[in-house]
Amino acid sequence: MIARFLERFDDWINPVTVKELRQAVRGRFVATILSLALLAQCIAIAAIILSGKVNTELFTTVPAGPAAFGVIFTVVFTACLFFVPLYVGVRMVAERSDTNVDLFFITTIKPRTIVFGKLLAVLALVTLIFSASLPFLVFSYVLRGVDLFAIGMLLVLAYLLIASQAVAALFVGCIPTSKPFKIILAFVLLGFSAMSQAPMLLAAAQMMNSGPSLLASSDFWKIMGIFVMSIGVIDALLLVLTIALITPLSANRALPVRITMSILWLVSLIPAALVVLTTPSARELLLVWTIAQCVLVSLVLMSAIGERDRWGPRVAKTIPANPFKRAFAFLFYSGGAGGTLWVIHFFILTIVAYAVIDAQAPVPTFNVPISATRDLIDGLLCVFGYAMTALLLRRTLLQRVPPRATWAIAMAVFILGAIIPPLIVLMISMDGADPGIYSFATIANPFPRQDMRGDPTRTFLLVAWVASMTFANFKWFTGQWRRFKPEGERPARISPDVSSGEVLSDERQPA
Q1: What is the pLDDT of residue 391?
Q2: pLDDT value for 55
Q3: Which pLDDT belongs to residue 56?
Q4: Average pLDDT over residues 434-462
Q5: 193: which residues sit within 8 A by CB, 6+ positions away?
Q6: How far apart, in Å, are the Cα atoms of 462 and each of 245, 337, 348, 415, 417?
C-alpha cells in the first residue's frame, strides 16, 4: 500500500521542478547567495551582541530585538527580492534561446507544467533561504521587543512579494523579443523591485512598533486583504500570459487568457464594490479599479488586432457546432475579430459597473469626487479609434507589415493624432496658445484639457470616428465569423500549385 502510494506520488511530482532543484543544488549561484546571506546575518547578530556588552544599559532600557530583526529581515528580504527573480529570469531567457530548443520546442511536457514547475522550484528556493535564516529571526525574539505575530506576518508578506517578482521575471523571460529589449525589461523589473523594497521595510518598522495591537485594527486587515488580493490577481494573470507565450502558435492561446481575465474582472469587482458601498472615504478605490481594468482590456485590444485571421485544423476541431455556443466561443477563441468583440463587451461592462456603483456609493462629507463616467467613455473611444485605424491601415496601405506589429501602427497613429498636434499648436503660438485651438488639437487625446472633459461635441466627434473606422473594418469582422466553423463544415481547400511555389495554410497568421 505504501509502496503504491509512493509510486503514484513520484508520478505526481513535476519533472521540471526536480530538474530545476537539481541544477540549483549543483550550481554555485544559489549556494553563494545563501552563504553570503548567512554570513551577513552572523555579522549583524555579532555586532548587536557586542554593542550590548559594551553598553550594559542597552538590554534594560531599549530592547535589542527590533534592531536585530530589522537588520536580519532587511538582509534576507533584499537578497531574495533582487537575486531570486534575477536567477529565474536568466534561466528562462537561456532556455528560450535558439541554442536550447529541447525543453520548449520538442518536449511533450505541457506548457503549464513547465511554468508551474519553475514556479514551484522558485518557491522551494525561497523557503530554503527563509528556513536557513529562521534561527537568527528567533534569536531576535529572545532579545525582547519583538512580537511573534509581527514576525510571522512580515515573513508571509515578504514571501508573497518575492514570489510575485519571480512570476514577473518568468513572464519577462518568455516574451518573444530581442535580447536588448529583454535587457530593458529586466531593468524595468529591477526598478519595480527597488520601488517595492522601501514600502516593505517601512511596513516592517511600523509593525514592529505596533505589536499585538494590529490584530484589533480593522483597517490593518482591510489593507492586508487588498494587498494580498492585488498580488494574487496580478500573479494569476501573469502566469496565464506566461503559459500562453510558450504555447505553440497553432493552439488556441487566447482561450485561457480571456477566461482568466473575465474571472478576475468579476472577482476583483465584488470586493471593490463592497468596500466602496460601505466606506464613504474609499470612493476613489472604484475609480482605481475601473482605470486598471480599462488599461488591461486596452492591452488585450492591442494584442487582438494583430491576431490570426484563420484557424487551423487543431483549433477548428474544438469549435462548437451549435450556433449559440459558437457565437459565445467566438469571443474567447484566438482571432482578431473575436478578441475585438470581447474587448467591446468588457469596455461596456466596466463603464456600466462604474456608473451603477458610483451612483449608489455614499457621498463623503469632504472632498466630494466628481463622476468620471464621461471621461472614461471618451478615453476608451480614443483607444478603440486608434486600434481600428491601425487595423485599417495594416489591411489596406501597410499590407507588408506583419499582423503582430499592428500595435506598433496604433502607437504611431496615437503619436500623430494625440501628441504632435498640441505640440505644433504650442510651437506656433510661442506667446501662448489660443484655448479653443489647443482644445481642438487635443480632441483625440485620452487626456485632454480640463475644459474639453465632458464636452458633448468631443464625445460626438469620437463616436463618429470610431463608427467610421469600425464600418471600414466591417468586412474583416464578418469574414472571420464566416470562417469560424468546425472542421467538418468548412469548405474544402484547393490544393496548392506546387510549380508556382504557392502554399496554402490556415496558420499563415501568427497567434
Answers
A1: 92
A2: 46
A3: 43
A4: 72
A5: 81, 82, 85, 165
A6: 34, 21, 16, 17, 12
State if pTM tops 0.85: no
Helix, coil or strand: residue 408: helix
CB 221 within 8 A of CB 287: no
pLDDT at 148: 74
Q: Which residue has the higher pLDDT, 103 or 41?
A: 41
Instruction: Report angle CA 9, 10, 13 to the nearest 5 degrees.
Output: 85
Q: Residue 440: what residue type? A: F
Q: Could you give phi then psi for residue 361, rounded to 5 degrees?
A: -70, 145
Cell 467591446, residue located = 344
Interval 181-234: pLDDT, tens: 777 777 777 777 777 777 777 777 777 666 666 666 666 677 777 777 778 888
Nine-digit cell at 320?
Answer: 462548437
Q: How far is CA 222 from the centre of its chain?
A: 22
pLDDT of residue 431: 57
Q: Which of 133, 123, 172 is nearest to 36 (CA)?
A: 133
Burial of 314 from C-beta contacts in 10 A (0-12 / 13-18 / 19+) = middle
Rounded-to-integer distance, Cα 153 and Cα 176, Å: 37
Identify the helix (H) or strand (E) that includes residue 201: helix 179-210
Predicted confidence (pLDDT) per residue in 110-125, tens digit: 788 888 888 888 888 8
What is the C-alpha separation between 194 and 319, in angstroms, rounded? Answer: 46
Burial 80-103 (b: 16+ CB within 10 A, else e): bbbbbbbbbbebbbebbeeeeeee
Most confident option among 26-30, 121-125, 219-223, 467-471: 467-471
Give me the DSSP letters along 12-45: HS-HHHHHHHHHHHHSSHHHHHHHHHHHHHHHHH
For 20-50, letters b (16+ CB in 10 Å) and e give bbeebeeeeebeebbeebbebbeebbeebee
pLDDT of residue 96 exceeding 60, the answer is yes
Copy the grid coordinates of residue 234: 496580478
Q: Is 197 exposed, middle or buried (0-12, 13-18, 19+ CB in 10 A)?
A: middle
pLDDT at position 324: 87
Identity of the residue numbered 496: P
Length of the chain in terms of residues written:
511
Integer Cα distance of 250 and 247 in angstroms = 8
DSSP state of 307: S
Helices 111-142 and 65-95 cross at an angle (nearest 10°) of 160
DSSP secondary structure letters along 71-85: HHHHHHHHHHHHHHH
Contact 80, 158 (CB under 8 A): yes
Amino acid symbol at 22: R
d(CA 101, CA 111): 14
